[in-house]
Amino acid sequence: MNIRIVLLVVLPLIYALFACGQSQDIVYLQALMDSWQNRPPSWVGSDPCGDKWDGIFCNDSRVTSITLVNINLMGFLSGDIGQLSELQLLDLSYNKGLAGSLTPEIGKLKKLAHLHLIGCSFIGPLPHTLGSLPQLSSLSLNANGFSGPIPPSIGNLSKLFVLDLADNMLSGPIPVSDGVNPGLDLLFNTRHFHFGNNRLSGEIPSQLFNSNMTLIHVLFEDNQLTGTIPFTLGLVQKLEVLRLDRNLLSGHIPSNINCLTLLRQLYLSNNKLEGPLPDLSSMTILNYLDMSNNSFESSEIPPWFSSLQSLTTLMMHDTGLKGEVPVDLFHIPHIETLVLRNNRLNGTLDFGDSYSESLKLIDMSNNLISAFVQRSHSANLMLINNPVCKLEATETYCHQPKESNSSYSTPSNNCIPATTCSLDQISSPNCKCAYPYTGTLTFKAPSFSDLGNSTIYTSIQSSMMSSFESNRLPVDSVSLLSHPSMSSYYFVVNLEIFPSGGERFSRSEISMIGFLFSSQTYRPPSSFGPYSFLGNTYLFFSDAEKGKHKMVSIGVIIGGSVGGCVLVLLLFIAGLHVYRKRRAEKATSMNTPFASWDPDKGNGDKPQLKGPRSFTFEELNACTNNFTPTASIGSGGYGMVYRGTLPSGQLVAIKRAQHGSIQSGVEFINEIEVLSRVHHKNLVSLVGFSLDAGKQMLVYEYAVNGSLKDSLLGRSGIRLDWTRRLQIILGAARGLQYLHDLVDPPIIHSDVKSTNILLDTHLNAKVSDFGLSKPLGDSNRALVTTHVKGTVGYIDPEYYVTQQMTKKSDVYSFGIVMLELITARNPVDNGKHIVRVVKESMDRNFREVVDPTIGLSIDLHGLERFVDVAFRCVEKAGNRRPKMSDVVKEIENIMEATGVNPNGESASTSESYGWETNGNNQLERSPLYM
Q1: Which of 114, 392, 517, 919 is most buried, judging by how many CB atoms fall within 10 Å of its CB?
Q2: The domain at 28-382 falls in which architecture?
Q3: What are 76-94's pLDDT values in tens digits?
Q4: Is 868 in the active site?
Q5: pLDDT at 31
Q6: Inter-CA distances, 668 with 41, 457, 683, 697, Å
Q7: Would you list the domain boundaries of the chain?
Q8: Is the domain 707-930 a CATH 1.10.510.10 member?
């Protein structure tokens, strides 16, 4: 039966089945699962609800909640999610391997109340269909790579409580309603506007705020907003935190801002504000005030400063203040920090007799203070570059203080820390060796500034443990690590959360702990203000996956349907049987491409692959000493990689598929066929392969210096200076150019990344791993794929959207490798893409992101030109990227201008960089580099 006919018959029957059965969610969940890797091992059986799949919660066999937080999921969110019509909660936060665009199908989830995708790697525009979720209460999409404008349709979400879009690359104006289209001014019930660290531009619309709004947090910091602060902001009576700092705002601060009597934190620094300082004396509970780096009218310190009796921090540097500093300023009961440097303050500085004991920092540097009445005080006083220091130059306050080492680490809990913990284990505060779950807490607007005070850390620790206990989470203890600094404008704390009852957490336990933060269930003390959390990847699950995931049989799933669906079920199974039989036959033929070859039909002998030879399992078993663990040199989704020695003495790397490998037989055959017909000194050579005993193995030439990634991260013991990096990247570029321009038909590599660029004895680059490579068809333009494949951080954003892979897709990935080469950073780190990190650094000091091991003490000739080429490679539109041949020429020109021969090898021998020859004439790592 023709497969098209089968599908024409079967598909309507499937829809009929959905109408009369309760298995529809199970089928769509299975489809959703197929787009993810690293799924929980509990996901077996035919019924996610009845079999209790981790993270899946149901009501009468309908999926109502998917909570898979921080379990290292990889893949993308397919449109099948839109079919789970009863879904109320979707939380996939802290899975950095989840990428691609956010499907518009999300708008079909009419009962969805909570959508949390924090700290993943999603990119592209936010779909306007987000405004079609009438029940949505919390929308947290922070710490991704979303770009483009904020959809005006979000204004339709009348029940929205939390709107967190911070730490993305969103651009354009803040949308408001215009009588036809909705806007954010219609969100009367929303309490949180978190838009910080984006690229939003234009004026803050006056229409955005009104007296009907219930906002308590407005965080617009670090954008490109212009114009004046709208007068209507003073109408939002419940506002507690306002951050407008680090924008391009100008004009006067509206006088009615003093109507915000519940405000606790006010940040207006680093703008272009001018005019007089407004009277804020009515803000009686204000804790933190920062109006630094603005161009206010020169005036004396206003008396209302001293009336703010709840103030802990006053930041007024670079604001044009003049005159004497009033004594009352030091008598504010809880004042911790006074920073008034770079002004025109003069006269005598006097703390008075009853200054606050909370004072820790007083910075009056670069003023005109002529005298200081010395009294006993414990505060760190700075009077550098004041006239008083010309007379009292020996005083400590006239010298730059030594850098404070006030880092904090949770002490042991009356026990002796363990000293024999195994690799990757850490001794907990209770002195138990374990594998902690780690992450970063970022407090966006704390009410204090004395970060050296240990009580603030014990407060976090106590509140967090109480939250874990009340939610019955198996946590033994919490350790906090911090290097206190407000230079980043936030208070950042690194967490280590230790398991109780064992050394490791399970996936479900990690997910529950992560959900505690993503859902804001954990509430720190009120003085810490709003926070965000980013969980790190956890690699030590107690329920580590064993063997291959059992695929859910659609026949079994549908077999759960009863009553009037029996006839439909039988017809469906009959059609499906034919379809699956044909698929099995096709898969068999692809995994054994020469099995059906018949020489007796006049076709001659079986096709012979040029170069690679076929090995038996016994041969490869012998050359790896029975695949001993000591021969293992790496692992991946495909399986383990072993070092072996052939009888001829040749060193080889053997990639052995493990049971349940994510690489299919198609990819295995594909790599053999690709490498059999390409030969270039910058492409890894395939020595042979084995299909013996049902074991898939590929045998490559051995690259003794590992991958480029290994060297960039310092794992290989090789220091790559600027010249060597240029030689390596040029070799990789030439390898890709060969695939694109000199192979017929041309080949798209499809998985260019630093781990797939290997280094031989002479540090020559060898592009490897051709499992995803594809030859271009007759059009020689693009390949259309049904699923986006590749590695997160390297994948062409245009390919994400169009699913059309081109040569320019390789160029984009290569551009990411170029940026890695100069920064030694991961493509995606803490939710930020490397392109964004490098671009932002260029606005400040580009050298701060350059890998220091390159050798910053010398002039890096051609570095700026190299970065320019990299940015051209990562242009969003493929037609604006150069060809690989152009990239090769650019790098060659950079090397020639630097005085380096582009045709020379990287090094004379690997022994110069940490390798030595042992007694068996094999290369091993020198002890100096271990």
Answers
A1: 517
A2: Alpha-Beta Horseshoe (3.80)
A3: 898 889 999 999 999 999 9
A4: no
A5: 77
A6: 25, 52, 17, 8
A7: 28-382, 408-508+525-535, 613-702, 707-930
A8: yes
